[in-house]
Design brief:
Number of strands: 0
CATH architecture: Up-down Bundle
Strand content: under 5%
Helix content: over 70%
CATH superfamily: Nucleotidyltransferases  domain 2
Structural class: mainly alpha
Number of helices: 5
Distance between the termini: 29 Å
């Protein structure tokens, strides 16, 4: 049986659920020192939330007759120009941090990445959820 493609609203709801999960991890990380496993869970939750945000953007632009985009960077730039996000540089920083966190690189970026998630990136997702809620 075929499934129907998700609507932009359904993607936003899925993003909202992932963001709720991320908020729980971030609140815990602000209170206690995370173990290695908890740090990985926080980062995984963040990456899922980011991917779902990109999916929402992609679906929104598809409804507008725009796209497809060649990658997360192009999609992020377009989202900034369309006022879906309000801090394009920080959203691009997310992409850079995710690339640098990749285990292929020998740089230890985990602690910096987690700090950025707690102090910068979660609030970007909160504003994105609010903006998309108004747009839809």
């Amino acid at each position: 049986m075929k499934t129907l493609p998700q609507s932009c609203e359904q993607c936003l709801a899925e993003f909202g659920q992932a963001l709720d999960d991320l908020r729980v991890y971030v609140q815990k990380a602000k209170k206690v020192e995370l173990s290695e496993a908890q740090s990985r869970e926080l980062i995984t939750s963040f990456e899922v939330t980011h991917e779902l945000a990109l999916k929402v953007m992609s679906k929104y632009f598809a409804q507008q007759g725009k796209g497809p985009y060649s990658g997360s960077r192009d999609l992020t730039v377009e989202a900034f120009h369309a006022d879906l996000i309000d801090d394009g540089k920080s959203w691009l920083d997310i992409i850079i941090d995710r690339i640098q966190y990749n285990p292929v690189y020998e740089i230890d970026t985990q602690s910096k990445f987690i700090e950025n998630i707690k102090k910068r990136y979660t609030s970007l997702f909160n504003r994105f959820e609010e903006n998309m809620g108004k747009m839809l």
